[in-house]
Structures are given as structure tokens and as C-alpha cells.
Amino acid sequence: MPLKAPNSLRSLRTLRLRNLPISRTPLPCTARYSSHSPMGSATASTRKNVTIQTLQALYRKNEPITMLTAYDFPSAHVADSAGMEVVLVGDSLAMVGMGMEDTNAVTLDEMLLHCRSVSRGVKSAFTIADLPMGSYETSPEQALTSAIRMIKEGNMKGIKLEGGAEMASTISKITTAGIPVVAHIGLTPQRQHSLGGFRVQGKSTSAAVKLLRDALAVQKAGACMVLIEAVPAPIAALVTQKLSVPTIGIGSGNGCSGQVLVQVDMLGNFPEGRFLPKFVKRYADVWGEARRGVEAYREEVKGRVFPSSEFCYGVDEEVVREFEGVVDEVVGEDID
């Protein structure tokens, strides 16, 4: 005598045969049974929110300001939880996050998407976003419009733009609207083609004088900080001494008021053989750890080691036996 299907299965079959809707109301449960889960909200921070006033206070105490790039929720979350005072959504996103050849290809809309992700991961740090190439050079009005979008749509607290004295009127326009601006001088990657590539700046007396004049001009225009990239340490230190706002160095020595690095670079999250600027120090080997983990996973799947029973959901043996008894019948119905 064939085993009769349990009532629950017979009811299901009856509903199917009659083309009646099947209830999808989930059963109450206390655990999350899902193939994935969100990282959740960023961990509540015990430190106070970092403001412009906080950064100015650090500058007055001669305490270095820490800045790090982030491009999404996880990278922002770790930067903030590790105590960074400033999190920068840099246009370096184009190269290290989107696989582009340089920073010029990333658009304002793409930057905004990543800014929103970063803003959800940051609870205390001061957030700044790069204005990408093409979003601010045409006029101060264009720059202000883009900056407002970064604040309103990207949930950022300030913006960064590249350029020295020639951008003074633009910086003034944006700061007059109440938006903090970080000016980026020295090596300006968006202008690499006019600079002859990614080259160290300020190596001659005339170049150092131009750097100082640029720094003084953007400070006068209202910049709250000045980022100095790829400038010899003694030159950057002298420029820093002549300003009354903090400088943030990247490849410009520790005489600056603070430092910034690209998170992907300093964490070593890249394959062997990739070019790394001289000024980058690797503090971890994220790529190596990630690859070892992925390789171990592949081997366990190929060897049917994963998933073992501890990673599987359980079911009553009686249910399995009952299902085995009706499975061929159900398949036969589907064929008919």
C-alpha cells in the first residue's frame, strides 16, 4: 500500500489542482533564516561629532589631523570606528573602486551614490567629498550647484576641489553659501595631463613660490583646510608654517597639520605588482587575507567539505521520510 501523503502535503496538492491561491504567510520565528544579511547600522560612537571647530582645535593644539578615504558603507564604517577625524570620499574612487584609468572619468552622479553609502557608515567623523572633474571648472555658479548637491543629496559636510589661486573666486562662492571647502594644491590629479603626469611638485624655487601663493590665495578665499599632494617635505612644512588653517599632507611629509591616504592603498587591498606611490605605507595585507579566504572556500566546495552539517538548517526526520514517500508522485503530477 502506498504511503499516504501527510495532511499538509495533501492540502497543498488540493489547492494546486483547484488553482486556488496558496498562503505565503510566514511562520513566526525567532531567528533570521536568510541567504544574506545587511551589515546593519553603523556602530553607535561614544565620541562627539567632529566639526570644523573640532579640527580647528586640533590645529591650535598642534595635534595631527587624521583623514582617510572611503567609498562605501564598509570602508566608511571601519574608518569612522577606528577614530578617523575626517573621512574623504575621494575621486580616487574612479581608479581604486571602479577600475578606471584615472580620476577624470568619474561623474558627479557616481560620486553622489558613493557619498550616500559613506554617510550611512559614518557616525562621528567629518565627511568631505571631491568635486569630480567637469562639475566645477566652468564657473563659480556651476561649482556652487555641484557643492550643494554634495551636501543635500550626498549627505556630506564639506567638499574638496583642486586648484590654487585660479580657483579663489570659486572657493569664495561656495564658502559664502556656508559650505566648507578643502583646497587641493601641489599635484592635482585631475590636471595630470597639463602637469606632465603624476609628478612631484614644488621642487624648484619658482614652483615652491607658486605653491605658497596658491596656498595663501585659497586660504584668503575661505578654504578651511589645504591639502598638499606630492611636495617635498621641507617645502610643505614651510608653507604650513605660513598659513593659519590646517594643511593635510599626502606625500608631503609630516610637517603638515595632518595626513591622508587612500584606504585601499594603505590596507594593501590590491594584487602584487600594482604600482604604489612612494609615500604609501602598507599597514595590512587585505588582498592576501581575502585571497587566502576565497581560495580556501573554493577548495572546500570542490571537495564537498563545505557546507558541513553545522552550516545547514535542520529538519525532522519524519518530514524527510514523508517527503520521500510523495516526491515521485508530485513529480509525476508536474509531468502530467
TrEMBL record:
<dbReference type="GO" id="GO:0016301">
    <property type="term" value="F:kinase activity"/>
</dbReference>
<comment type="function">
    <text>Catalyzes the reversible reaction in which hydroxymethyl group from 5,10-methylenetetrahydrofolate is transferred onto alpha-ketoisovalerate to form ketopantoate.</text>
</comment>
<dbReference type="InterPro" id="IPR015813">
    <property type="entry name" value="Pyrv/PenolPyrv_kinase-like_dom"/>
</dbReference>
<dbReference type="GO" id="GO:0005739">
    <property type="term" value="C:mitochondrion"/>
</dbReference>
<dbReference type="GO" id="GO:0000287">
    <property type="term" value="F:magnesium ion binding"/>
</dbReference>
<comment type="pathway">
    <text>Cofactor biosynthesis; (R)-pantothenate biosynthesis; (R)-pantoate from 3-methyl-2-oxobutanoate: step 1/2.</text>
</comment>
<dbReference type="InterPro" id="IPR040442">
    <property type="entry name" value="Pyrv_kinase-like_dom_sf"/>
</dbReference>
<dbReference type="GO" id="GO:0003864">
    <property type="term" value="F:3-methyl-2-oxobutanoate hydroxymethyltransferase activity"/>
</dbReference>
<comment type="similarity">
    <text>Belongs to the PanB family.</text>
</comment>
<dbReference type="Pfam" id="PF02548">
    <property type="entry name" value="Pantoate_transf"/>
</dbReference>
<keyword id="KW-0670">Pyruvate</keyword>
<keyword id="KW-0418">Kinase</keyword>
<protein>
    <recommendedName>
        <fullName>3-methyl-2-oxobutanoate hydroxymethyltransferase</fullName>
        <ecNumber>2.1.2.11</ecNumber>
    </recommendedName>
</protein>
<dbReference type="GO" id="GO:0015940">
    <property type="term" value="P:pantothenate biosynthetic process"/>
</dbReference>
<keyword id="KW-0808">Transferase</keyword>
<dbReference type="InterPro" id="IPR003700">
    <property type="entry name" value="Pantoate_hydroxy_MeTrfase"/>
</dbReference>
<keyword id="KW-0566">Pantothenate biosynthesis</keyword>
